[in-house]
Design a protein that fits this description.
Rossmann fold; alpha/beta; two-stranded antiparallel ribbon; binds S-adenosylmethionine; seven-stranded mixed sheet; Arc Repressor Mutant, subunit A; 14 helices; 336 residues; 9 strands; single chain
Length: 336
């Protein structure tokens, strides 16, 4: 996107030249930005411009290599070049140095340039060619970026979501499946002084927990979920499983809930007002299919899986308009 076409390059927009070539350049730009972030090139420029030799020494990299990379980044709009040396542009200054957004960027770069290598196999066979969580487990740094991206997103949404989730007065129990960082459980416990929460996730994903927030390392597809819960959170979980897996999981959740208890589901919808949001949702869905046999499901399809529950309600989030909270009330104890 930072590349601006020149007046004599309009052939790309009129289909006289292949616009996919511009996409190739966009991909190169993204890859170059990844290299600059990982090598600390942007960070070395945070206090002002540096000539190539000083930039190479500050980042601890080869001078000729960094010059060629920086020149490419100038053409892509991530740096400017002048007699004073290379300098951050407003884009790289605001978003790619010392910003929480850097974790989003660093995570998706690994996904695009490494995880998607077998995308054709997934599409050809209809089965995920890679196991996303096994792939993450082999990459502790990418795993940390993934968790910190989720945690940052939860930090923005927890205050909006907590009041939308009905918790009965008095001592109540919450189960947070795939709750990782635990931020949603913590926000709900802060709001409801008699609530205790259990967060169940892979060990590498679990945050520190707290007095009333217990972290339990487990695979929720296999673990005994127990019974007697008033609320079960399934936040950004259903999109990681195929339909049959979700139906089975929801039946186990229903059995774990007290009658009148609530399952609260957070998911992305498939529609968005702008083409960039729609493109992201479809990119996300493809990634879920490729690595987890999941996808971004239509909301009415999710509602269909809740047929055994009563009172299904759906709320679009103000602070993340492509995401929805779906709540449903358990009617009677399920079969288990
Ligand atoms: C997309 S993240 C959502 C995290 C959190 N609920 C949120 O909304 O921010 C999905 C979480 O589910 C966990 N997870 C996926 N499959 C799991 C499984 N079979 N057992 C336990 N945890 C699992 C992942 O480790 C990850 O923390």
């Amino acid at each position: 996107m930072p590349i601006e076409l020149g007046d004599d390059e309009r052939a790309y927009t009129s289909n006289e030249a292949p616009a996919s070539f511009a996409d190739m350049l966009g991909t190169a730009a993204y890859r170059c930005a990844a290299a600059a972030m990982r090598l600390g090139v942007f960070g070395a420029l945070r206090d002002g411009p540096l000539p190539a030799a000083a930039l190479a020494s500050a980042a601890g990299v080869d001078e000729r290599g960094v010059t060629i990379l920086a020149d490419a980044l100038v053409s892509f709009g991530y740096l400017t070049g002048s007699a004073a040396g290379y300098e951050l542009t407003p884009l790289s200054d605001r978003w790619l140095v010392d910003s929480p957004y850097t974790t989003v960027e660093l995570f998706w770069q690994r996904v695009m340039f490494e995880l998607w290598d077998g995308l054709e196999d997934s599409v050809r066979t209809g089965k995920p060619a890679v196991d996303f969580y096994a792939w993450l487990a082999d990459r502790p740094e990418t795993s940390r970026q993934f968790q910190s991206m989720l945690d940052e997103h939860a930090r923005l949404l927890a205050a909006e979501l907590a009041p939308l989730i009905p918790v009965p007065p008095g001592p109540a129990r919450l189960l947070d499946l795939g709750g990782g960082h635990g931020r949603y459980s913590t926000a709900l416990c802060e709001r409801h002084p008699s609530l205790t929460a259990t967060v169940l996730d892979y060990a590498s994903a679990l945050g520190p927990g707290g007095d009333r927030v217990t972290m339990v390392p487990a695979n929720y597809l296999e673990a005994d979920l127990g019974t007697g819960y008033d609320v079960v959170l399934l936040f950004n979980v259903l999109h990681g499983h195929p339909e049959a897996g979700n139906r089975a999981l929801l039946a186990r959740v229903e059995a774990a809930l007290n009658p009148g208890g609530v399952v609260a589901i957070l998911e992305h919808g498939r529609d968005a007002p702008g083409p960039a949001d729609v493109s992201f949702l479809r990119t996300f869905s493809l990634n879920l299919f490729h690595g987890q046999n999941g996808e971004v499901y239509a909301l009415d399809r999710i509602a269909g899986w809740l047929a055994g529950f009563g009172e299904v309600s759906t709320t679009r989030l103000r602070n993340s308009p492509t995401q929805y909270l779906i709540t449903a009330v358990a009617q009677s104890r399920g079969a288990g």
